Amino acid sequence: MAAIATGKKRVNRSLSGSLSLFALLLVFGAFMVLPLIYAINNAFKPLDEIFTFPPTLFVKNPTFSNFTDLLNLLSDSWVPFSRYIFNTVFITGIGIVGHVLLASAAAYPLAKHKFPGKVFMFQVVVLSLMFTPAVTAIPNYMIMSWLGWIDTYWAVIIPAFAYSLGLYLMKQFMEQIPDALLEAAKIDGATEYRIFWSIVMPNVKPAWLTLIILLFQMLWGSDGNGYIYSEQLKTLHYAAGQIIQGGISRAGAGAAVALILMSVPITLFIFSQSRIIETMASSGMKE
Amino acid sequence: MGMKSWWSWKLKEMKASKHSYVLLAPYMILFTMFTVIPVVISIILSFTYFNMLEFPRFIGWQNYTRLFLEDDVFLIAIKNTLLFAIITGPISYIACFVFAWIINELTPKWRAFMTLIFYAPSISGNVYFIWLMIFSGDRYGIANGLLIKWGVLLEPIQWLKSEAYIMPILILVQLWLSLGTGFLAFIAGLQTVDRTLYEAGAVDGIKNRWQELWYITLPSMRPQLMFGAVIQLTTSFAVADVSIALAGFPSVNYAAETVVTHLIDFGTTRFEMGYASAIATVLFMIMVGTNLLVQKLLRRVGE
What we know:
- The complex is a heterodimer.
- Chain A is 68% helix and 0% strand.
- Chain A has helices at 15-43, 47-50, 65-76, 81-112, 118-128, 137-147, 154-161, 164-174, 179-187, 192-203, 205-220, 236-244, 251-282.
- Chain A has 13 helices and no strands.
- Chain A is mainly alpha-helical.
- In chain A, helix 1 (15-43) packs antiparallel against helix 13 (251-282), helix 5 (118-128) crosses helix 8 (164-174) and helix 8 (164-174) packs antiparallel against helix 11 (205-220).
- Chain B has helices at 3-16, 18-45, 62-70, 72-103, 108-123, 130-134, 142-149, 163-177, 181-192, 195-203, 209-220, 222-237, 241-247, 259-269, 273-298, and strands at 48-49, 57-58.
- Chain B is built from 15 helices and two strands.
- In chain B, strands 1-2 form a two-stranded antiparallel sheet.
- Chain B is flat and about 85 Å long.
- In chain B, a hairpin with a 7-residue loop joins strand 1 (48-49) and strand 2 (57-58).
- The chains are: A mainly alpha, B mainly alpha.
- The interface between A and B is large, with 107 and 112 residues.
């Protein structure tokens, strides 16, 4: 247990207490991680190993055949697989860029300016954190059809621009920027837009990352949310769902697709973890 | 100050802040279009009969009386949703905090590693279909396979097709998925607690980690605790995707029906938009109401 960093300097720590807490952590950590390990191993199992009794957690004769099967399966479908990848990357990419820009622009006045309606607007956004988008799904569908956005990427992308959690976190983070910095720029004659773009934005770079991860998670896993019907516009997640529901003959390819889907966001998180937690720590959430 | 001068003063203030409004406008316009207006429309539609083809017809409280008095499946949905909220809400909230709290005592490298392990299920992009393989109804599913091997079972169980097992399995999977944004906020919050408070606390006679937790850590983290509560509660009231993916739609005898799946059923399958809007409005009221109540309770922590 090299992991125990306590005993050293912290007071008020008993060894038995530490040990039982870490045991708890290990047991539940195993519960969290075992299904993922099972999924990883399944992707490399030959078909006869997936259907073996008793089932095994770890792969014995690892193979890439599931991935080649997946490729063959996909090259047979009338929409090329690259199209699903493009759709998902496009939706995720544009959605993230738009959200970071719009939410930052809106967060700056909410954090640093005083103007009529400010408290009210922020409270409405906070209130919207308290309910699920499912509540507004039907009117949203109607609005999309009035706008003529049904069966286009925009039905998924544009609402993501106005995701409320991102604005909330960004506003809290921006409150930490010292006022003196903004005052100095104002005295030098900078406009509000210039201050926002050249001073505020570079200062909140760590917070961008948090917004990027949150939105990536949301959009990467999106299957079109009932707005997209054309096969050519469907996302990777939708295609994956189709393969996984394909039954026994496709069990191997399904396992491969599951691994591909989960590894992208996890990898992204590994590289950005420390910055994300830093952002949340310094964003000093207020009541 | 008279009414008139108050208005002219406000107006002057608004003109002076025009740059603030310009910066806010793009976000606020979209937010209004896709969140505020839909909530209002949903509440209005809930008092109408509307099938998407004809113009909505006002019918008063009929949708609501039908919902609570005649719709047996809705009662199952409410029961299941409350079960989710009562079990997964508090457990996942406490789990988020407890695990963040233990992880916070590890060295930075281990802290990063354990954070990843606990956060991975919720970030990995809806991979809960892994559980389909685990609870697969034949003997090749891990659950059946192990139980048969150990001699607990003789025949494989159709886990996701048996009313008795569906809800416990969904609760388990939902718990597995639930260490998300709230968990990260807690980890972050724990790192901001002022270290000197603990030293001062030790001098003032705080004896063990539990007292430290109640008198110092929790009160210092009140904002994060609020944030986490909102996120966990909202998620546990909104269970639907997991239910549809694992138990099917509709599930066997509606055993896994939740308020959101009921809403989807009437909204997208039967096109009874007025009725579906009434379901949405009830859900909206429950979610916002519970959140406000829980926030009120949380203000008392550590007092």
